[in-house]
Amino acid sequence: MNRRTAHNPPCPKCGYSSRKNGHQPGPDGRGYQNYQCVNADCRHQFQPDRPKVKKKEPTVRCPLCGRTMEVYKVRASYTRYRCSGRQKKPATINWIYLK
User: Fold this and answer.
1) Burial class of residue 91 in the structure, from the number of CB atoms within 10 Å of its CB (0-12 exposed, 13-18 middle, 19+ buried)
2) Burial 10-43 (b: 16+ CB within 10 A, else e)
3) Contact 69, 84 (CB under 8 A)
4) Distance CA 87, CA 57 (A)
5) Structure letter (DSSP) for residue 57
6) What is the pLDDT of residues 58-67, one digit of tens each?
7) Does residue 28 surpass a pLDDT of 60?
8) pTM for the full predicted model
9) What digits encode the pLDDT tens for the residues 5-27?
10) pLDDT averaged over the chain?
């Protein structure tokens, strides 16, 4: 059994084996180990033990340009989004919460 790849998880993107990241060999500030894919075409960096974070808000797209919209105002009954494209007059959408 090869000691270098015995505990290294496979790459989640391409399935090749991985190694501990050479530039960041130890764990990050939260204690999760950094790994990097050994495939020369992939080189994906990942942390397999780190829990996935779910988005709180749905992704809203701008009806004019298709870019993502960011939260502009939050009120009790609605949230207003503004286009991240920063046109002269950006598009705005009111997201109304139905209770």
Assistant:
1) middle
2) ebeeeeeebeebeeeeeeeeeeebbbbbeeeeee
3) yes
4) 23
5) S
6) 677 888 788 8
7) yes
8) 0.46
9) 447 888 888 888 888 766 665 67
10) 76
> Measuring CA to CA, which residue among 37, 35, 36 is closest to residue 16?
37
Buried b / exposed e over 48-82, threshold 16 CB at 10 Å, is eeeeeeeeeeeeeebeeeeeebeeeeeeeeebebb
Of 3, 97, 4, 8, give the one whose Cα is nearest residue 57. 97
Task: Determine the Cα–Cα distance for residues 94 and 41; give it in Å rounded to an integer.
Answer: 43
Sign (positive/negative) of CA torsion 61, 62, 68, 71?
negative
The encoded tokens of residue 17 equal 């084996």
pLDDT of residue 15: 86
Report how far residue 75's alpha carbon sits from residue 78's, in angstroms, rounded to the nearest whole number: 5
